[in-house]
């Protein structure tokens, strides 16, 4: 390009600048807080960002890791207490009700009516997205937690297949151990170990036990013999993990499976997102199997967005952002990236990978049977105080600090205690 035309361009740009500044000032902005920082999660937030921009809004974000568990929640609380709540925040489970109870969240009823959220969001998720009958959160996905994520070539090398029941799972893990592969990859955090616990508990006790014990907090459901089996199975699984778990996060455990250092991980469907972000395909590089004996149950963790009152966001912008999040196109593209099922049951399943398609079918069927049940570990089953008590006892048991009987007594106390927040 010649110097003259550079100058001409500069001039044109200078003349356009005031108009540009005006246009920017009038573009509605969404100010978002979220915890999506791993490679797969970044691919997911990219989708939301793209849809927001396409809908004519500017995007501003603050990302803090912590998987929606304590650390991230602390950051949200700090911002609210400092008088600068995020306009919109990613949130899961009963943390949503914590803020709703304080009158901190804006109602999304108007948007919900227009897009008929009541008709398309699974009943089990609505229980968390609504407070006292009003929509206060927009669910963007339905992750499931009762899944095994398996390295396919290790599985083939071992001559293994999908474990259909508990004994088959143990036999498969034994094979990996004998072959010198870490059978079970897991990290150090209590929520991850509680993920393992909830699948074991659902497998041992079934849907009704899980609902009564963890959602209804009914102490009558806690038959000692059943609890003994659960903790005995947890001990059995612990023996298949390696010592390295003490210094590892959930996504590092996922990378062990990817690299074939470990056979499998028991985790949420965000692991499907991690594989997908690395162009790995089910049936080739990895496999997904339902946790044995939980075949009829969809243990869910729905990522949702809440909108804080008192943040600088016009009602119309809030409505537009919520509508964008609930758009079927966003829920399709987003969840191809997240690895979850969409939070709406009416999104076509064809574009999803094989694990995603299985999930969507499983969610629809479980919704009909009312076995879409909240994940304990991800705070979708019960209030934070109960969840935290369960974290502590499961972690103490998993790391060998307490025995089965102590864990049982502490679980009974956690479930029977006052259901405060
Ligand atoms: C969950 C969230 C997932 C994924 C996971 C791991 O709480 O629902 O989308 O982010 O944490 O960080």
Q: Tally of extended strands?
A: 14
CATH class of the largest domain: Alpha Beta
Overall CATH architecture of the largest domain: 3-Layer(aba) Sandwich
Query: Taking Cα atoms only, what radius of gyration do you get, to the nearest Å?
Result: 23 Å
Major sheet characteristics: 5 strands, mixed
Give the spatial strand order of the biggest sheet: 2-1-3-13-6
- Give the name of the CATH superfamily of the largest domain: Periplasmic binding protein-like II
Low-confidence stretches: 1-20
Domains, number = 2
| Morphology call | globular
Q: Classify the beta-strand content into a percent band.
A: 5-15%
Quaternary structure: single chain
The overall pLDDT, averaged over residues, is 93
Say what the CATH topology of the largest domain is: D-Maltodextrin-Binding Protein, domain 2
Write out the distinct hetero groups bound to the structure: beta-D-galactopyranose
Helix-strand makeup class:
alpha/beta
Function: Part of a binding-protein-dependent transport system for a sugar.
Signal peptide: 1-21
Protein name: Probable sugar-binding periplasmic protein
Subcellular location: Periplasm
Chart the SSEs and their pairings:
Layout: H1 3-26, E1 29-34, H2 39-54, E2 58-63, H3 70-81, E3 88-91, H4 94-101, H5 109-115, H6 117-120, H7 123-129, E4 130-131, E5 134-135, E6 138-139, E7 143-144, E8 147-151, H8 152-158, H9 166-178, E9 182-185, H10 190-215, H11 224-238, H12 250-258, E10 262-267, H13 270-277, E11 286-290, E12 298-301, E13 304-307, H14 315-325, H15 328-338, H16 354-369, E14 372-374, H17 384-398, H18 404-416
Parallel strand pairs: 1-2, 1-3, 9-10, 12-14
Antiparallel strand pairs: 3-13, 4-5, 6-13, 7-12, 8-10, 8-11
Helix pairs in contact: 2-13, 2-15, 10-11, 10-17, 11-18, 13-15, 17-18
């Amino acid at each position: 390009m010649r110097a003259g035309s550079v100058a001409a361009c500069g001039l044109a740009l200078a003349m356009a600048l005031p108009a540009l500044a005006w246009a920017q000032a009038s573009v509605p902005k969404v100010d978002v807080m979220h915890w999506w920082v791993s490679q797969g999660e970044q691919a997911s937030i990219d989708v939301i960002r793209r849809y927001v921009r396409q809908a004519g809004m500017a995007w501003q974000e603050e990302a803090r890791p912590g998987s929606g568990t304590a650390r991230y929640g602390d950051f949200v609380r700090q911002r609210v207490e400092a008088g600068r709540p995020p306009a919109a925040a990613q949130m899961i489970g009963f943390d949503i009700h914590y803020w709703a109870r304080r009158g901190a969240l804006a109602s999304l009823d108007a948007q919900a009516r227009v897009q008929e959220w009541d008709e398309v969001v699974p009943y089990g998720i609505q229980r968390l997205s609504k407070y006292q009958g009003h929509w206060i959160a927009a669910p963007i996905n339905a992750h499931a937690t009762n899944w095994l994520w398996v390295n396919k070539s290790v599985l083939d090398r071992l001559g293994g297949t999908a474990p259909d029941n508990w004994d088959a799972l143990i036999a498969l893990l034994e094979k990996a151990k004998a072959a010198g592969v870490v059978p079970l990859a897991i990290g150090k955090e209590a929520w991850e170990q509680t993920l393992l616990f909830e699948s074991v508990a659902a497998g041992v006790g079934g849907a009704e036990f899980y609902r009564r014990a963890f959602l209804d907090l009914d102490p009558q459901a806690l038959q000692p013999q059943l609890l003994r089996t659960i903790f005995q199975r947890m001990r059995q699984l612990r023996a298949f993990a390696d010592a390295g778990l003490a210094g590892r996060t959930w996504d590092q455990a996922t990378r062990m499976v990817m690299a074939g250092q470990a056979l499998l991980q028991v985790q949420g469907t965000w692991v499907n997102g991690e594989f997908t972000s690395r162009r790995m395909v089910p049936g080739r590089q990895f496999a997904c199997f339902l946790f044995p004996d939980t075949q009829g149950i969809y243990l869910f963790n729905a990522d949702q967005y809440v909108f804080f009152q008192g943040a600088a966001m016009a009602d119309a912008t809030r409505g537009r952002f919520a509508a964008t999040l609930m758009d079927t196109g966003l829920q399709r593209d987003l969840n191809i990236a997240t690895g979850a099922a969409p939070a709406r049951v009416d999104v076509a399943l064809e574009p999803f990978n094989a694990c995603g398609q299985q999930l969507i079918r499983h969610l629809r069927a479980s919704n009909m049977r009312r076995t879409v049940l909240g994940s304990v570990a991800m705070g979708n089953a019960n209030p934070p105080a109960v969840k935290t008590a369960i974290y502590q006892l499961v972690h103490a048991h998993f790391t060998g600090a307490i025995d089965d009987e102590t864990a049982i007594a502490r679980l009974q106390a956690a479930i029977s205690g006052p259901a405060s927040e």
